[in-house]
Specification:
Helix content is 16%, strand content 34%. With 316 residues, the protein is of the alpha+beta class. It has a single domain, classed as 2,3-Dihydroxybiphenyl 1,2-Dioxygenase, domain 1 (Roll). Strands 2-3-4-1-13-16-15-14 form an eight-stranded mixed beta sheet. An eight-stranded mixed beta sheet has the order 6-7-8-5-9-12-11-10, with helices on one face. The longest helix is centred in the last third of the chain and has 13 residues. The chain is globular. It starts with 7 loop residues before the first strand and ends in a 12-residue tail after the last helix. The model has no long low-confidence stretch (mean pLDDT 96). This is Glyoxylase family protein. Pfam families: Glyoxalase (PF00903).
Length: 316
């Protein structure tokens, strides 16, 4: 039987200044801005999608930027570090690049046999780059980053939890994940155990609760193929005591949401239909795209949004 879940679909964070947010993820990290739309639940706030050339599932980091938002704090009950995948022998390039833009970088860490560095974005969002030689995705660059060093998409994510057992039962019992291994207080899970599907649970029984605001993750979405498999996931979860939402139309995918036992908001999103349904692939992210129901309010919505521009040439 084909698995219903096949890894990470997207990760969504809360951010501060919209222009600084675009500058960091397109200019410094070199991800493509594949969609510029609104938060469907708060139409006066942008929703940016950053990813590879087409915003393929497993590459999409998204943000809700709130101008003036105070910074959140890392703690338990949160996804505290988003890890991106980079090719082997790229780590020194990235260390030098991040230092060039004044971004403090950790020492090189060794985790499950991979070299890892940690740093934070302008809002304090935790990011890791993981060197590996098993990721054949193409990545993306605006030209300021050599293609051979570019980010390929997600490697994985770290959930900081007070205990792991209930979340482990959810992942391995109903979401097609399996246990991979343990290093200290870190427990690793994967669907196939490759870049794009890794979930680490970092157990911190005495940790303080994180505070969600700018620089923290709002939710993590897992991939499912289509609406049929999404309904199967929803049915399986609800039959086993997880309270999911109804299916929500997010234009570029459909979603269900539920809170995992450790407190992190989970989403299951469809791979279909993708980001090219309302823009030509060559011009993704150039215009503010609105769902059909918001088009009558376009003038009011656009006036409420701070204008932003791509300035990737300033980050060569």
């Amino acid at each position: 039987m084909k698995p219903l879940i096949s890894g990470i679909h997207h990760i969504t964070a809360i951010a501060g200044n919209p222009q600084a947010n675009i500058d960091f993820y397109t200019g410094i990290l070199g991800l493509r801005l594949v969609k510029k739309t609104i938060n469907f639940d708060a139409p006066d706030v942008y929703h940016f999608y950053f990813g590879d050339e087409l915003g393929s599932p497993g590459t999409i980091f998204t943000t809700f930027p709130f101008t003036g938002a105070r910074k959140g704090s890392k703690g338990t009950g949160e996804l505290t570090y988003t890890a991106f995948s980079i090719p082997t022998n790229s780590l020194n390039f990235w260390i030098e690049r991040l230092k060039k833009f004044g971004i403090p970088v950790s020492d090189v860490l060794d985790r499950f046999g991979n070299k890892v560095i940690r740093f934070e974005d302008h809002d304090g969002m935790g990011i890791e780059l993981v060197e590996n030689d098993t990721d054949d995705r193409k990545g993306w660059t605006y030209g300021q980053i050599p293609k051979e060093n570019s980010i390929r998409g997600f490697f994985g994510a770290t959930l900081n939890l007070r205990e792991k057992d209930a979340t482990e039962r959810l992942l391995t019992g109903f979401m097609d994940y399996h246990f991979i291994g343990q290093e200290g207080d870190r427990f690793r899970y994967g669907t196939e155990g490759k870049a794009g599907d890794i979930i680490d649970i970092l157990v911190n029984p005495n940790g303080h609760r994180g505070m969600q605001s700018a620089g923290s993750v709002h939710h993590i979405a897992f991939r499912t193929a289509n609406s049929d498999s999404q309904l199967e996931v929803q049915k399986l979860l609800m039959e086993n005591g997880y309270q999911t939402t109804e299916v929500k139309d997010r234009n570029y995918f459909t979603s269900i949401y539920f809170r995992e036992p450790g407190g992190v908001l989970f989403e299951v999103a469809t791979d279909e239909p993708g980001f090219a349904i309302d823009e030509d692939e060559a011009h993704l992210g150039e215009l503010i795209k609105l769902p059909e129901w918001a088009e009558p309010s376009r003038e009011k919505i656009e006036k409420s949004l701070t204008p932003v521009t791509l300035k990737t040439e300033e980050y060569a």
